[in-house]
Specification:
The complex is a heterodimer of chains A (173) and B (123). Chain A is of the alpha/beta class. Chain A is 40% helix and 23% strand. Classes of the chains: A alpha/beta (173), B mainly alpha (123).
Chain lengths: 173, 123
Amino acid sequence: MRNKILIILLILFLSFCFFVLFKSLQGSSIYVPEKNQDKQLSEFVSEDLFNNQKITSEEIFQGSDYYLLNIWASWCAPCRKEHPQLMELAKNSSIKLIGLNYKDNPKKAKDFLVKLGNPFSIIITDKTGIISIEFGGYGIPETFLINKDKKIIKTFIGNLNDESVKQINSIVK
Amino acid sequence: MKKLKIFFILFFMLNFFSISFAEKNDQLKIKISKNLRCVVCQGQSIYDSQSDFALSIKLLINNKIDNGLSEKEIYEFLKDKYGEWIIYDTSFNKKTFILWGLPVLLFILGGAIILKKIAFRKI
């Protein structure tokens, strides 16, 4: 009788372990910060890529109901890949596109835009990577859809694709 | 001459305090960066990693300490941005209670089994 209880307990314990491991296998291995969603952005100061003038977050996030902040750099290959999608999104007048140029050479960044087109209403620079931390960003490219209350409502990790463009357009319409 | 002596004493004292203060801050920076997970690297702390993300976080820690923020305030700031996952030393909450509680429970259970065995042997 005692042995039977022990065997049942052992089977229950092993089933529990199997269930936990199996469940964790199904999850995505890409880490997504859970906290930056639906959270008000803190204030920061940056520089404009073209005129090097200081610009505050208050000045950046004004005049639109939705903002799409894209972290990019000229040295980032996936950024080149998602550029047509950003050009497509720039046609949507409901969104203001903001570029966050991450740890880049300003000259190369400008050349990149001359070559591929500039979808952004404003481009700010992040020479140290600290501004991207304000958004909970940890790599590039990364895109944040922000509403007029300055809350991140959607985060896109990696390069944007046609599906992400559809999603963004359906949220902002 | 006396004035010169006082000047030198004060000069060396000031230097001593500024060096020890800087050393304390450096140790704090290392302690914080060792307790933070590099979320883009596999199994490395911010201190160990040389990734772009880790370098930015190290710089942020320096700035925050220079601005007078405490260790706890820096953890809170990063927790707010990246969630509990970024900190190695996980706090006790509804998501982590099994993680913290299970070892204690197993310890108590094991202890009870051993005690019971000893008690039986004595009988």
